[in-house]
Amino acid sequence: MSLADRIMKIDRRIIYALIFIVIFLFSLKPMGIPVVTQPWVIDTYKLVESLQPGDKVLICWSLYPVSNEQIAGAVVILQHLCMRGIKTVHFQTQTAVDLVDDVMLNKVHPESYGQVYGKDWLWLGYISGLEAGQAAIAQNLKGTVTVDKYGNQLSQYSLWNELTNDARQFKFVLSPSAETPGTAGVLRQFQIPYGLKIVESGSAFSLGSVMPFYASKQYWGMVAGFPDCAAYEKLIGKPGIGSRSTDPLSAMGLLVFGLLLVSNIAYIISKLGGKGGSVK
Amino acid sequence: MFSLKAGVTSTFIILIVFVIGMYIYMKISKKGMYFRRIPGLDALEECVGRAVEMGRPVQYSPGQKGVTDTNAPPTLAAITMLSYVAQICARKGANIGVSIMDAQVMPLVDQSLKEAYLAEGIDQYPKDGIQWLAPTQFSFAAAMLARLRREKPAAIFYIGHCEAETLMIAETGIEIGAMQVMGTEAVAQLPFMTAAADYTIYGDEIYAADAYLSRNVKTMGSLRTIDLGKLFAMLVIIIGSILSTFGISILTQILKW
Amino acid sequence: MKMSFLRREGPLIFTSVVAFFLIIEYYIANSQLTLIATFLNRSAMIVGAFLLGFGIINMTLIHTKNIIQRKPKWPFSLYLLILLFVTLVAGLIPPLGSNYYYLWLFNNIYTPLDPAIFSLIAFFIISTAFRALKIRNLEVSLMLLFTVVVILRNAPIGPATFPPIGWLGDWVIISINTGVQRALNLVVALGAIAYGVRILLGVERGYLKGAG
Predict the structure, then answer these.
(1) How many whole angstroms separate alpha carbon C178 and alpha carbon C191?
(2) Mean pLDDT of chain C
């Protein structure tokens, strides 16, 4: 078997081992590679900056806590909202327990910005029905839920008493999503009927699917993936998980490029039947 | 008492016209209508035949979602295709296993398999092959990978609403040497299916499966309406782009009405 | 009315009536209609939740059979059933779904396992790209070209060291990708509407019975 054939038929486990080694090495020592701030990140930042303290934002969580990349954007936007004194109301359409607890209490730490549960933020818990649940919140917030995630009566909280049934009371809807109903559901239930601004956060994978909606301004902004998250962290001056993750991401990009280059060179050599190659 | 909600009048009119057009086409369509080839659908019989020759089972999964949310159409389309695949399996004597994530589809899958086998004159259908694996995405993915490695099917069909687990299933299928037909309406997964699967059924082709496989004149006629709908959309986009370039927003106003 | 007619056509008639009603409710502003539609939606959710029990019964029956018949790898079936019922019992201890044992199982076992399986995708994507993206023909070559451009654009080092890759990647995502996504979304939506109308009119019956 020629070298070219051996390269093309390489055991996958060698590739997996290379991936693991590269990520591990580049995670150990951050190099601080600069990131480009995309227009959709700047739009999101400007939107939050334009709000006044006491304004309200709705957060519709449509994801399981599968990876930090999916929640990194939401974390940094929530930090910015807390810094600006914006009040947030959270609900989730997936049954992942403690998602909002994990994000707010372990990563965002609203108390460090002087925010108090019940006065500055509320967690309504899991609303069943996926998109039907989103519709219920949009059309009839106060009729849909009466207790929060912890089982406490919402009427005891001052933030709940400030809220009305009008979806337009929220300055925008933040949609951290990966799962159904995700992007499409928020668009259909909040943007189209009420004209609410939508900001999407999720993994870099969702960038391609959400881009048509951002390009037509149905989505106001996005923070998709670690590079966007790192750029946003730079804007608000709080480096976090996004900034830490850009180095392994860069290394992986280069590794994939290198592997594709090598495999295609090997393929061309074996196709041409050149020196060391074999005719296919 | 009854009035249209704000902002939906234009879509309501378009929907009525679309439905009327579909009804007319279903009435006037004749046999022998031209239909382009869909390689993924042509390959169903080939895949099952391969499984029979190799003495290995067939594995089918109707995707992730159930029938009570907005992902019901691809799931129902997948179950429709399952009945075709099951009938081919019954005819050729292949074992079929079905992996389910959303338990809502279990009764439909059970019924499909039973009716498909009965259509071939076989009373006993492989009820034990229908397995509910897990209710969440990656639990389902892990269970599906384990099932594939254990049973080593020669043909894998993964059709319906698919998400991130698509590539995991496709790669595992390649490792065990299975021929794979995948199809979804989820646009984000199509590139992975194209790269990894042997045959891919793209987007709305899964909805055309019943018409394509049965050659039912009525359903084929309804597909002609979809083509006209696409033509209408193209015209609106082109005309709207030209008008918007000159600052005329009348078309946008009409569509927002 | 004959039983066979009801068995065959009954589900179709019921589906058509409910679907027609929900479509009308979406367009017509009337509080009574909205109330009925909300009730129907909630009923569907409840039926869906009950059907989860079907899945649990199916899983229990299949794996119990594996154990009794000592099929290959039957200890894993026993392990699965033990985990299933331990979690079920833990979830039923009050307060439902949020007692200490259930939360411990969810937070310490399920929550780490989910991202662990998700992380396998990275390895699979790269091995797929290595195997499949070769300059075989025009389509695959274009796919390879755009994959390389977007990968380097997403890696921060790409635009940082070679800005044109950032501009090219942005152009691919904003122009080409957006156009294709819109086209596919439109086409899929039209197909889904047509499929729904066929179900509404009772023309599409493949999901209810065998082929043809």
Answers:
(1) 20
(2) 86
